[in-house]
Amino acid sequence: MEFDFEKMAADDRYKILTSTIVPRPIAWVTTISKNGVRNAAPFSFFNALCKDPPILALGITPEAGGGMKDTARNILDTREFVVNLVPRSASQSMNLTSGDVPPDVDELELAKLKTRPSLKVQPARISISPVAFECRLHTPIEISNQLIALGEVVQAHVDDAFILDPEKFYVDTLAMDLIGRMHGRGWYMGINGMFEIARP
């Protein structure tokens, strides 16, 4: 079947994209607003793009009402963010931070998530995440109320428990049990197969 993306509604294009480009890694992004409010939210329009400089790409679609999401606004205002990767053990907490809440709500507190200070940027890291990348905004691309943020990784954190050989930078990827997004509203993929979580 053919799909003419130039004629389709955005939500219909989204269904085709997210049902076929799978699994997608999840960036569990922490930011701080210019007023000092902490924010955490997961995004699956995300990946690593290059190594020199080390660039991560994060696509942030508009909120339900069409406005710019808090994460996008915070990144543009402060030019800093942290990408935390999501182990299956954190899937429920990650899901809690995906809900629509007012900008003055601290999602980390809402989901009862412990944090650790970052070394080079202001937003904290999520403690339960085995991997975190501290990023500074390299290039913002604004499309309507959407943001494509190209972030340069300035510091990476990998839990000691998952380091196989520090001299060769070998990591025990499977042991981290990271999850990715699949199709539909609540399907995810882990190393032990797919599972579903109802969105808040």
Mean pLDDT: 96
First-residue to last-residue Cα separation: 33 Å
The low-pLDDT segments are none
Order of helices and strands: HEEEEEHEHHEEEEEEHEEE
Largest sheet: 7 strands, antiparallel
The gross shape turns out to be: globular
Estimated structural class: alpha+beta
User: Count of helices?
Assistant: 5
Number of E-state strands: 15
Q: Into which percentage range does the β-strand content fall? A: 35-45%
Physical arrangement of strands within the biggest beta sheet: 3-2-6-9-10-5-4
From the alpha-carbon coordinates, what is the Rg to the nearest angstrom?
17 Å
The assembly state of the depicted protein chains is: single chain
Q: What's the helical proportion of residues?
A: 10-25%
Describe this structure in words.
Helix content is 17%, strand content 38%. With 200 residues, the chain is an alpha+beta fold. The strands form 4 sheets. Strands 3-2-6-9-10-5-4 form a 7-stranded antiparallel sheet, with helices on one face. Strands 1-13-14-15 form a 4-stranded antiparallel sheet, with no helix packed on it. A hairpin with a 2-residue loop joins strand 14 (187-190) and strand 15 (193-196). The mean pLDDT is 96.
Give descriptors for this structure.
38% strand; seven-stranded antiparallel beta sheet; 17% helix; 200 residues; alpha+beta; globular
Structure at a glance:
The protein is an alpha+beta fold.
Please describe the topology of this protein:
Elements: H1 10-20, E1 24-25, E2 27-32, E3 38-43, E4 46-51, E5 54-60, H2 70-78, E6 80-84, H3 91-96, H4 107-110, E7 115-116, E8 125-126, E9 131-143, E10 146-158, E11 163-165, E12 170-171, H5 173-176, E13 180-181, E14 187-190, E15 193-196
Antiparallel strand pairs: 1-13, 2-3, 2-6, 4-5, 5-10, 6-9, 7-8, 9-10, 11-12, 13-14, 14-15
